[in-house]
Amino acid sequence: MRVGIDTDNFHFRPAKPIGSPIQLLTIARLTDKKGIFTSLEACRILKERGYHFIYNVLGNGPQRDEVEETIARYGLQQNVILHGFQSPQVINDFLQKSDIFMLPSQTAEDGDMEGVPVALMEAMARGIPVISTWHSGIPELVEDGHNGWLIKEKDAAGLADVIAKIVDEKPDLTPMLQAARRKVEQEFDKNKSYDSLIRLISGQLHA
Fold it and tell me: Whole-model pTM?
């Protein structure tokens, strides 16, 4: 039985023009496997290229001090905002206003890996373009070029390039966002997963 979300709690937002500044979002614990330093390096690259953006990070964790040091070292104090843990309502507000959700997950130094991150499911259900990585179970959810984008682990330049492409080319994202919503509804809705499990158990009991 897959981990999933209740898609009824995530109202689908129609595609909207990319804002100025660009509103980037990550919702994650600040741990190695979440790839936050890849995101920060991508932000450094984007700033060097002249892009105007705000990167909101919701979550806390053991890497917070190092993240703050990296933000200062890269001169991103006006671009990156660490909000810490937030309530579901605040998270929903950030999902509503964000242009791009990024989660460049990676295999941690201790071998820790993702499953299929719930935060990606939530962003896709909400109608936000997502960028993640070819890591663990993520490609089961995000299909590169179809319902989101995937880059290699620790590929900050690749992450920056995808963001720049979205901003510069202004593609019609409606088909991609609709495909993302369908993917979550069909394969990662916890209510459907629960119903399927009940049917399976019931079938075995009556076999």
Answer: 0.93
